[in-house]
Write a structure and sequence with these properties.
Order of helices and strands: EHHEEHEEH
Largest sheet: 5 strands, antiparallel
Oligomer: single chain
Number of strands: 5
Helix content: 40-55%
Number of domains: 2
CATH superfamily of the largest domain: Histidine kinase-like ATPase, C-terminal domain
Shape: elongated
Strand content: 15-25%
CATH topology of the largest domain: Heat Shock Protein 90
Strand order of the largest sheet: 1-2-3-5-4
CATH class of the largest domain: Alpha Beta
Radius of gyration: 21 Å
CATH architecture of the largest domain: 2-Layer Sandwich
Length: about 160
């Protein structure tokens, strides 16, 4: 299998459309259906948004998105390239709890859309893995079932004619 590696950089949330175009081009190249494209697109943009929200100055942050096609499937590494400024000590307890709740909800969404997710300890990178081989298997099963259904209907129709 030929390995495919690509990467882009986005600066701030204003350039999230670059990430969307990047994902669309990859899925178009590999002929990935729209349903799976939506999962990949939502998960990658949410992961980038999480990394931007961790970096308090979202206008200055730079995120690198790396794509790698390997035997597992599609691997997206989303990495914060600037220093992560720690949450200020002056931040109120309520603000900290709101941030934790929002992050846990966003991570839950990403986890539901991906096959594997890894978040670095220092929260500077998120790795998303999408198994694409299972899609072909599921499609094959669907086609087999449709053929079985078709042939069973044909058999019934033939018996009715006699």
């Amino acid at each position: 299998m030929k390995r495919d590696f690509r990467s882009i950089f986005i600066t701030g949330k204003k350039e999230i459309n670059k990430l969307e175009r990047f994902v669309e081009e990859i899925c178009d190249y590999y002929n990935i259906n729209n349903e799976y494209l939506g999962n990949i697109l939502l998960a990658t943009t949410e992961a980038a948004d999480i990394l931007f929200s961790i970096n308090d100055s979202s206008e200055v942050g730079v995120i690198e998105i790396q794509f790698d096609r390997n035997p597992k499937g599609f691997v997206f590494r989303i990495k914060l390239c600037t220093d992560v400024s720690n949450v200020s000590e002056n931040e109120e307890i309520l603000d900290k709890e709101i941030r934790k709740h929002k992050l846990s909800r966003d991570i839950f969404i990403i986890k539901a859309l991906t096959d594997e997710i890894s978040i670095s300890v220092n929260a500077k990178s998120i790795i998303l893995v999408f198994y694409i081989s299972s899609m072909n298997y599921e499609k094959s099963l669907q086609r087999i079932n449709e053929l079985k259904e078709y042939w069973s209907k044909k058999k019934i129709m033939i018996h009715r004619k006699q």
